[in-house]
């Protein structure tokens, strides 16, 4: 774990020379890569939004991180990481980030393209010739933007939890794709005819990463992405459970510990665990990277329709503010990572609860953002 908070007081004194705690967030200066406890004035600004949001989400635990322009990264936490052992949520609490994982996979694909290992215009059948015939002509680029027509097996299981599947074993990315194909192999639509969100498509990308690197997906991602970017608390969830919060569902009698999925089941489409501090460090790295323009450009369907999705990123308003973001949810965790290009503001929300109200976390993102930016 990073020793970030050990030097918090010294860093706070240094930052105080440049900016006051009463300054608007986006006017504060410091080192965005340094993570500090959220100052009391900012905690006060978001208090009402967080209180309402946690109630709407029925959240057991929540960690909030914010950063704007050249401000430090500020983090604060609420609630509990583990009810059984009464462990409070904190800045170093690790959460499953769900589909926020997709942008990391897109980034790795672009790195492999830059290295000349593959091209986004390549058909996936070039790398995975065992895929169903209808899938083989779909391009890597189409899968990145969810326009490849690949069916979403996560949705299949959500619609029918009794769908036959071997839950007793671990899977590589390649093996999980093969297992999904046994359940449904028909394309959901012709490529580039419509936007069909597909975590299975991202599992296909993870299998391609395994094929071209010769490494397990989790090893390739650590070597090529997490370590070079300095994300010390980020990994595929099944690699290391240190610091990982217990995930909860909300039952009729309150929170219940959620199920644990087989290792590798979420490869590509989800599966990454991280902290809010790492998420904001990632966003700060990404927005300055040469890949960001491609990742944050709308994909286009065959009929010319632009869709509000790039490569692993949603492109749409949150509330009334233009944003580049991704939300995530697993069987017992919820997440948001949003960047507002007009202001340079980033917010990361991670919770160890999948509550009954699917829009409650979005409402919290909107309210928290308004509370901080409208105060500027």
SS strand fraction: 15-25%
Distance between the termini: 33 Å
Largest sheet: 8 strands, mixed
Report the C-alpha radius of gyration, rounded: 20 Å
Q: Let me know the average pLDDT.
A: 92
| Number of structural units classed as domains | 2
Structural class assignment? alpha+beta
Total DSSP E strands: 14
CATH architecture of the largest domain: 3-Layer(aba) Sandwich
Give the ordered list of helices and strands.
HEHEEEEHHHHHHHEEEEHHEEEEEH
CATH superfamily of the largest domain: DD-peptidase/beta-lactamase superfamily
Which overall shape is indicated by the principal axes computed on the Cα atoms?
A: globular
Structure annotation, total helices = 12
What is the CATH top level name of the largest domain?
A: Alpha Beta
Summarize the amount of helix as a percent range.
25-40%
CATH third-level topology of the largest domain:
Beta-lactamase
Low-pLDDT parts are 1-20
Q: What brief labels describe this structure?
A:
376 residues; 33% helix; eight-stranded mixed beta sheet; Beta-lactamase; alpha+beta; 18% strand; globular
